Amino acid sequence: MATLKFSSLAGRLRRSEIRELLKVTLHPDTISFAGGLPDPAIFPYQAVEAASQRVIKEQGRRALQYSPTEGEPFLREQLSAFMQRQGDIAKPEDIIVVSSSQQALDLLGKIFIDPGDPVIVERPTYLGTIQAFRAFGADFCGVEMDDDGIIPEELEKTIVRLQRQGRKPKFIYLIPDFQNPAGVTLSMERRKRVLEIASRYDLLIAEDSPYRELRFRGEMLPSLYAMDTEGRVLLMKTLSKMFCPGFRLGWMTGPAEVLDKIVMAKQMTDLCTSAYTSILTGFLIQDGHIERQIEISKNLYIRKAEVMLNALEKYMPAIEGLSWSKPDGGMFLWVRLPEYMDTAEMITEAVKLKVVYVVGTGFFADGSGHNAMRLNYSYPTEEKIVEGVQRLAQVIKSRVRDTSKKTTIQR
Amino acid sequence: MATLKFSSLAGRLRRSEIRELLKVTLHPDTISFAGGLPDPAIFPYQAVEAASQRVIKEQGRRALQYSPTEGEPFLREQLSAFMQRQGDIAKPEDIIVVSSSQQALDLLGKIFIDPGDPVIVERPTYLGTIQAFRAFGADFCGVEMDDDGIIPEELEKTIVRLQRQGRKPKFIYLIPDFQNPAGVTLSMERRKRVLEIASRYDLLIAEDSPYRELRFRGEMLPSLYAMDTEGRVLLMKTLSKMFCPGFRLGWMTGPAEVLDKIVMAKQMTDLCTSAYTSILTGFLIQDGHIERQIEISKNLYIRKAEVMLNALEKYMPAIEGLSWSKPDGGMFLWVRLPEYMDTAEMITEAVKLKVVYVVGTGFFADGSGHNAMRLNYSYPTEEKIVEGVQRLAQVIKSRVRDTSKKTTIQR
Lengths: 411, 411
Known about the structure:
Two copies of one chain form a homodimer.
Chain A: H1 8-11, H2 17-24, E1 31-32, H3 45-63, H4 73-85, E2 96-98, H5 101-112, E3 118-123, H6 127-135, E4 139-146, E5 149-150, H7 152-164, E6 172-174, H8 188-200, E7 205-208, H9 224-227, E8 233-238, E9 250-253, H10 256-270, H11 275-286, H12 289-315, E10 323-324, E11 332-336, H13 343-352, E12 355-356, E13 358-359, E14 372-376, H14 382-399, H15 404-410
Parallel strand pairs in A: 1-12, 3-4, 3-6, 6-7, 7-8
Antiparallel strand pairs in A: 2-9, 4-5, 8-9, 10-11, 11-14, 13-14
Helix pairs in contact in A: 3-11, 4-11, 5-6, 5-10, 12-14
């Protein structure tokens, strides 16, 4: 075996908490609130099967060959049409097909981030984003959120603080809709403010938007990309949450100068995305199956979210410092525990009781979040959600400190 | 539009010559000797169609879901079985599925290469490898080849030269079989020597092996991976050349410590490879379609290579300094022109005459190769090969310097 010397990037790689937990969930009786998996019970099996029978017959020569790095033209056309129906305008030639939105994050890291470069993110933010940007050595500048999403005043403060240090963030990375993990949505008023701030300080916004279509109630807000009048929003989309993850398909659109570099970076990264799954997906979009699947997913996930919220209400101890988000869409609940609890420490017992979640620290680049956890409700069945919450409540109850002593003394 | 500041990696990205040429080849009457595309006339349409009908029926739930980062277990089993039939031993759990061998190159770059790090490559070497490793800032140390592949004495000299500078190459990157672009194969004797040298200097070998199965004549030589007794060879395989490129599927196996980092890097890169195409491909391997396709490809490409060789013999001017490789397998011919010719300069006229090739400089990290070109014979039809060589000969003839003057004076 050769003596190996890895790169500095390799030194910044971390084993994913989710991934390790997914291994655990292979035991059939463990209830997984980890991961961000859609419910396979509603996967569009018939539609995929029907479309798959057309791929070879109608587009076989293209489907089995290399596709252009920018993406299979037929899929780009269909994505453009789909976007338009969702209120976002992009010409097919301005859409870059990527092999999942995780690849979009990698490409973004590649073309923008040198070690030490500041990048603005929500706090907390998506675990996979931290993994990707950290590998390139990003200096994460986390901005606080409240129930209306990222706080504009805090965002501006962060930019000004960096400015005083002679630094400028490479971009502002946001998940405006049903943020992962916090579950909150950026309000309309805040969207305008964020765009104003980006304009004032001449900054690029990277809008990661995997859950926007999965809205349970209220009106869909326009994307930052759609509201932007200055060409400073890069939109990142994926089919994994609104359709299915098995094809590894996402797309990007935005400023031409950025897309140009993205294509060059994609070429060295994987040459092109699968023409086969691109054409298959093109047929599915063309026939309206994405919208149909979005409706089916929303109807199921709103119920599952409700079941989880009810179970939390019923089984969790009524203690100070324990709270959770009430999602209007998406796939996740964000649970905050009392400061003295540690979800990383608790996970061992949770695994013993056959329930898993994602430890909060995974969503903070600075290692905080020890007393938080992310719960997924899209994957487990309703019965398992109730059972899993009961198990989780048992773990949490065992950690509750007896504060009655203090009370006793005061009597 | 935001003022953008890209990363140093972005500054090292180059637009691919092949890619730009592929755009040109979209004109239906341009004959393309560029690219490395398999012939769509022999794609296994029926087999893919039949297998695609089984994916949802038999493995639907897995096929549409995320797969483990390491790869879909069923595909890993089938790849292990396929490898064994080809003389390479790897357990399924030691095989990492990747989304094309270009991704393998990206992952290798990620985990090993910091700017300035020396990497040993053949000279010339694969264009996509230069793109990927250059992006990470590799210092390419090119080693000369002859008709038996890389020259061991030159390899050792390069290692010793680096050693004197206090440097050690991160790995030796080789394409031992039907090297791209040079077309040569590393002899059995040289394989032993290369492994000895790697052992003596304690180095890792990255063996890129996309063409090994496509041997026209003579016996298949064992892979360096199979010959290695010290666990210092990382093997990189792809289905793009021996089966079809449309699924974007490759795989890696080798030292556990390397694979471990590769998995972590893949996770931040695209989370996982498509479960759908993995299962589809698993069925195809299981039913023997890969081996069948290899036979079909070999039978066609040996004939096409012959047609190209005959056309070159017939139409190219008999001038000093013009020669080409005689491939025993693979997809490419490597043409060397007289020193005073420049294939980059010539390409404009070639495009006018509706024939394209890849300019030699793309295969040298140091910008040499101005008088070389790579010709692909797997993609164009036999008629187009003959026609294309005639057009190419016309371009070359127009560049021949009249050396008769000198001769006249001597008379």
